[in-house]
């Protein structure tokens, strides 16, 4: 116990330092001792590894530092910093991936005059995410939550002169606002029923459908679950480093991480857990189906992110939050490597993103192509690569649970489709001759290759490194042989089907109805055409009737016209006709006298 006291102090100190170091790169003044954003993130990552290694080795419990900001009669507003195995692991992964993305941005954005501002935006985005990760208070988590949302809007809209970038950024912020309603609902419930926003002080026996609904709504908005997933493929309008950071270890997994943190309360509500299970399974299947019919390289990878987010939500619904965190860890480096490889292809092909116009990239960019293939194989769940250690257990846990058989079939189908669209992506980008002749020769430079190699290596070894820790957290299910091999069989079946279909798919044919339906899964017309069109039409009509035709018209032009018309009639009636005036006066006087006479006579 005495030995753990200095270790606990070291864990907390280095954790806080790893966040504070990031602020050094945001200063305006630069001296010979100043650090670039890339070196600052690298230093922060190295500091974060100290508490991560210590907490993993000694399995230390969570440590919390509290600072009371405001004391009310029944509620205390507290800022907290907490460290645990979960938060330290997530912290190190986020910093490692951001370091790689920062270095890649030095090559990708070197011709952009605002590249320094771009890196500062990435740093602010990372700081907001770290606040979210290390918070033990729901109100502090909400601050990081909103910071991530604001910075994602700025980063997606980096190419602000593009109409598509503007609409995609607005779409992302709109869907995230819907999720914010859920987290505000959860904050209100905790304040009124628990009188605290500190997670460790909440009653773990609490069972509230309203609280669970708020948390699931927040997670569905931020982690792009079914019906709220449409913003995520559109977010590909931002620069590729932004896509890599948003879709790997930060923003999109924030919703899942929230549910993991609040799992002690969530597990008491069976309807909430069932909702997570159904929502995750449907999201995974629909995203995989949409990826099969997609030709945009970045959107294929984005839809694969959706599919994996569905698996994470499915793991939470099956009462396995640690497996969800494990899959977040293995998926992060894999997805970041895929995006950076895709960015290299697109950048060298002069912003061409259609995989049908690529080809023979293995000869032009051999290292990048090898890393893309490695990351794709990892994503499929090939044995002994990282995702094999996290994807297979999630499906195996579903097989041993009382999950509906249709959900199991959907999960296995999504696994098979993951292999199919990954093979399809490799086939189109690597094989045959190039279908897009570049103007300049291809060249792989260190700032382009080094971060991709680091991420590819991590995507290979991350699973085996973390397996021992995860095994302590959750017992491995005992399954019959065929059930144990079911995920592997589904993966091989998906590969086989796609290889057989490639020769057929290369023949030009009109799009089938099935192709149209699956393609629309990533872009529902009812959400993006019919609903916005009718809501805008109704709003315009109401605004026109009430504002333009009623208030503005009656109080403005119509009122002035009426006053002017009345004044004009009055003025035009005064024409200087003395006889008319005298006769009118005399007639009026006579009528008054006659009326008065008869009144008194009566």
TrEMBL record:
Residue ranges constituting the NADH dehydrogenase subunit 5 C-terminal domain according to the UniProt record: 421-595
Top-rank taxon, per record: Eukaryota
Catalytic activity entry: a ubiquinone + NADH + 5 H(+)(in) = a ubiquinol + NAD(+) + 4 H(+)(out)
Organism (species): Rieppeleon kerstenii
UniProt subcellular location: Mitochondrion inner membrane
Primary location recorded for the protein, binned into one broad class: mitochondrion
GO CC, any one term: mitochondrial inner membrane
Entry's EC annotation: 7.1.1.2
Full protein name: NADH-ubiquinone oxidoreductase chain 5
Membrane topology field: Multi-pass membrane protein
Keyword set includes Translocase: yes
Domain NADH:quinone oxidoreductase/Mrp antiporter transmembrane: 135-417
Translocase listed as a keyword: yes
InterPro entries tied to this protein: NADH_DH_su5_C, ND/Mrp_TM, NU5C-like
Enzyme class: translocase
Assigned keywords, A-Z: Electron transport, Membrane, Mitochondrion, Mitochondrion inner membrane, NAD, Respiratory chain, Translocase, Transmembrane, Transmembrane helix, Transport, Ubiquinone
GO molecular-function term, one example from the UniProt record: NADH dehydrogenase activity
GO biological process: ATP synthesis coupled electron transport; electron transport coupled proton transport
Coiled-coil ranges from the UniProt annotation: none
Pfam families reported in the protein's UniProt record: NADH5_C, Proton_antipo_M
TM segment ranges: 6-27, 39-58, 89-109, 121-139, 145-161, 173-191, 211-232, 244-266, 272-293, 300-319, 325-346, 367-385, 405-428, 580-600
